[in-house]
Design brief:
16 helices, mainly alpha
C-alpha cells in the first residue's frame, strides 16, 4: 500500500508539472480565431513554451546543486500559476508567446528538480518503479490535459480555461509541499559545469542522442500541433469538445512507455529505437487519410512510437555520460525542447505553404534522420537500464 501511494504521488506530481505544456495545443483553432492569426503563427506562440523549457533545463543543470529539491519544485509550480493566469488576458500574440516562455521556465525547473529528487532519494530497488510512475504521469498529462483544455474552452471560454489551469498549478505546489520530504543540496563537483558540458559535447554518442531528442520532439510537436487544424476542417469537421476527446489516442502510451526499459534490456538501444521510430512512421501514413478512425489510429501509433523513443533515448544519455549526469541531462533536455520549437516553426511553414501532406513529409524526414543517427548509439545492451523522462 505504501509503495502504491508513493507511485501515485510521483505520478500526480509529474502530471501537474507538465499539464500546461501540451494542453494548449488542443485549443489552437480557438486561439487562432480569437487572436485573428494564421495557424503557423499561433502554433509558434503556443509552442514558445519549449524555448523556456530549453533555457530552464540548462539553468537547472548549472545551478541545481544550490537548490533544495522540494522547495525548488514547490516554488516553480506556485510561480507557474501567475503566467498561466495572465494568459487569460494576454492582449496580443507577442504577449501570449512571452507568457508561454515564462511558463516553460517554471515547468522546466520543476521537471528537472523532480528528476534529481527521484534519483537522489530512491533506493536502487525503488528507482525503476519511481521513474515508471513519473513516466506515466507525464504521458497522462498529454492526454488528460488536452481533454480538459478542450472541455474548458467549450464550456468556460478561453479565459476560463486558463483560470482552471492556474488552479492546477497551485494544486501541484500543494501536492509537493505536503507529499515530498526535504532534501539537502548535492555536493559541489570539482570541475565547473562548463567543463562538464564541453566533455559531453565531445562524446560522439551523446551528441547523437542530443540530436535524436531534438528530432523526436520536432516530429511530435509538428504532428500534434497542426493536426488540430486538419481535424476541425472538412471533411472531418470536429467540434472543440470532440477535438479534446481525440487525445484519448495517448491512452495506449500510458501502458507502453514504462515498458521501454525492458525492451532496451532485451533488444538493445538501437533496435528498440528503430522499432519505435518505425511504428511512428507507420502512423504517419494513416493521418493522411480522410477517415477519422484511421487518423486516430495513426495518431495513437505516433504517440506510442515517439514516447517510447524518448524514454529509450533518455535512458541512453544517463548511461553514456562519463561524468556529471545532471548536466548531460540538462543538455539533452535543452536540445529536446529546442526541437519542439523548431518543429512548430518549420512544419508550420510547410503546412501553410504546401498543406498537410508536406507537413507530414517533414515529420517523416525527421523520423528518418533520427533512425540514421541511432547507428551511433553503440552502448552494449547489458549496460542499459530503464529510462526516466518522457515527452
Amino acid at each position: 500500500m505504501r509503495a502504491a501511494l508513493r507511485s501515485a504521488l510521483i505520478a500526480t506530481t509529474a502530471f501537474l508539472t507538465l499539464v500546461d505544456l501540451f494542453a494548449t495545443q488542443a485549443i489552437l483553432p480557438s486561439l487562432a480565431a480569437a487572436y485573428g492569426v494564421r495557424p503557423a503563427a499561433m502554433g509558434l506562440a503556443v509552442n514558445a513554451a519549449t524555448l523556456g523549457m530549453a533555457a530552464g533545463s540548462l539553468a537547472v543543470a548549472f545551478f541545481s546543486r544550490h537548490i533544495e529539491r522540494r522547495r525548488g519544485v514547490m516554488l516553480a509550480l506556485g510561480v507557474l500559476a501567475l503566467p498561466t493566469l495572465l494568459l487569460a488576458h494576454a492582449p496580443g500574440l507577442a504577449t501570449f508567446a512571452a507568457l508561454r516562455v515564462v511558463q516553460g521556465l517554471c515547468m522546466a525547473t520543476a521537471f528537472a528538480l523532480t528528476l534529481s529528487y527521484l534519483a537522489e532519494q530512491c533506493s536502487a530497488a525503488e528507482t525503476a518503479g519511481a521513474f515508471a510512475a513519473y513516466i506515466t504521469g507525464n504521458v497522462a498529462s498529454n492526454l488528460f490535459g488536452r481533454v480538459m483544455a478542450a472541455a474548458a474552452v467549450d464550456h468556460l471560454g478561453i479565459a476560463g480555461n486558463f483560470y482552471l489551469f492556474a488552479a492546477l498549478n497551485l494544486a501541484g505546489a500543494m501536492v509537493v509541499y505536503f507529499g515530498l520530504a526535504r532534501t539537502q543540496p548535492a555536493a559541489m563537483p570539482a570541475a565547473s559545469p562548463l567543463a562538464y558540458g564541453a566533455e559531453h559535447l565531445r562524446n560522439e554518442r551523446l551528441r547523437a542522442a542530443f540530436a535524436i531528442g531534438f528530432l523526436i520532439l520536432f516530429a511530435f510537436i509538428g504532428t500534434f500541433t497542426y493536426v488540430n487544424f486538419v481535424l476541425v476542417c472538412p471533411p472531418l469537421s470536429l467540434g472543440m469538445m470532440a477535438l479534446g476527446f481525440v487525445y484519448l489516442v495517448f491512452a495506449p502510451s500510458i501502458v507502453t512507455t514504462p515498458l521501454a526499459g525492458g525492451a532496451v534490456a532485451r533488444y538493445g538501444t538501437r533496435r528498440t529505437l528503430w522499432g519505435s521510430l518505425g511504428l511512428a512512421a507507420c502512423g504517419l501514413a494513416l493521418v493522411l487519410t480522410a477517415s477519422l478512425p484511421l487518423v486516430l489510429a495513426g495518431l495513437a501509433l505516433i504517440g506510442v512510437g515517439t514516447f517510447f523513443a524518448q524514454a529509450t533515448t533518455t535512458g541512453f544519455v544517463g548511461l553514456a555520460a562519463t561524468s556529471d549526469r545532471g548536466s548531460a541531462s540538462g543538455l539533452y533536455l535543452a536540445s529536446y525542447f529546442l526541437g519542439g520549437l523548431a518543429g512548430a516553426a518549420v512544419l508550420g511553414w510547410l503546412y501553410e505553404r504546401h498543406g498537410w501532406a508536406a507537413c507530414v513529409a517533414g515529420i517523416g524526414a525527421a523520423l528518418a534522420a533520427a533512425a540514421w543517427l541511432t547507428l551511433r548509439l553503440h552502448m552494449p545492451a547489458a549496460r542499459l537500464k530503464p529510462a526516466h523522462i518522457t515527452l
